[in-house]
Amino acid sequence: MNEKIESLQKNHTWQLVEKLKNQKIVGCKWVFKRKKGIPRVEDARFKAYLVAKGYTQKDNVDFNEVFSPFVRHSSIRVLLAKIALFDLELK
């Protein structure tokens, strides 16, 4: 948990601000996962994730847009295939 908190602070993931009156705070919780290691090569690891309780948020009140930093590799391949098929340029 300490390692994850340090990483979040180092990357300036959030910034502390004063809570305004009548403002609801979105909570968070820790999720723990055990990652299997490779036998005789790597030991099992334990990972900690700090996640927001997004189900408590309301659209256009607590957020205006949704952002996910993850993309499927198959989506990238389809996009690149269409670019090549139609002789388009990717910037």
**Total of helices:** 2
Helices and strands: which structural class?
alpha+beta
Q: How confident is the prediction overall: mean pLDDT?
A: 85
Helical fraction: 10-25%
Number of E-state strands: 2
Short description:
With 91 residues, the chain is α+β, with helices and mostly antiparallel strands. Helices cover 24% and strands 18% of the residues.
Walkthrough of the structure:
- By secondary structure, the protein is an alpha+beta fold.
- The protein has one domain (2-85).
- Helices cover 24% and strands 18% of the residues.
- The chain has helices at residues 2-10, 73-85; strands spanning 28-35, 45-52.
- The radius of gyration is 20 Å and the shape is flat.
- The mean pLDDT is 85.
- It comes from Vitis vinifera (Grape).
- InterPro entries: RVT_2.
- This is Reverse transcriptase Ty1/copia-type domain-containing protein.
Task: Give the topology.
Blueprint: H1 2-10, E1 28-35, E2 45-52, H2 73-85
Antiparallel strand pairs: 1-2
Characteristic terms for this protein:
91 residues; 24% helix; two-stranded antiparallel ribbon; flat; alpha+beta; 2 helices
